[in-house]
Amino acid sequence: MSTSVLLVEDDPDVRSMLRLLLEDENYRVFEAGDAERALERVEIDRPDLLLVDLKLPGLSGLDLVRMVRVTNPVPIIVVTAQIDTHDVV
Questions:
Q1: Mean of the pLDDT values across residues 15-30?
Q2: Cα(8)–Cα(22) distance, rounded to whole angstroms?
Q3: What is the structure's pLDDT at 89?
Q4: CA–CA dist 15, 12 (Å, integer)
Q5: Contacts from 77-81 at CB under 8 Å and sequence distance 24+?
Q6: If 0-12 CB within 10 Å is exposed, 13-18 middle and 19+ buried, where does residue 14 land?
Q7: Is the pLDDT of residue 86 over 60?
């Protein structure tokens, strides 16, 4: 059984590229373009890992992480293009 990843990224091009890279490494990939859809997918798909962009439309990636953490200990990796050290840390 392969590890499942929920990829939360609003840019379809970036999401597609990351999906291909993850699938090449035998991950099963679920996708969401915003935090609201990601919350649904977390409940439905029960992924083993979340890859979350911080800059999402509507709720931010940070909001998503906080909401998931209330009930789910799933590992989360933040993917961001932000360069401000304070934001990244």
A1: 96
A2: 13
A3: 47
A4: 5
A5: 77/49, 77/50, 77/51, 77/52, 78/52, 78/53, 78/54, 79/9, 79/18, 79/51, 79/52, 79/53, 79/54, 80/53, 80/54, 80/55, 81/55
A6: middle
A7: no
For tokens 């800059």, the residue is 55
C-alpha span between 58 and 8 (Å, rounded) = 13
Cβ proximity of 66 and 42 under 8 Å: no
The model's pLDDT over 25-46, given as tens digits with 9 standing for 90+, comes to 999 999 999 999 999 999 999 9
The answer to whether 5 touches 22, Cβ cutoff 8 Å, is yes
Supply 79's token pair. Answer: 């993917």
Q: For 54-81, what is each residue's pLDDT tens digit? A: 999 999 999 999 999 999 999 999 987 6
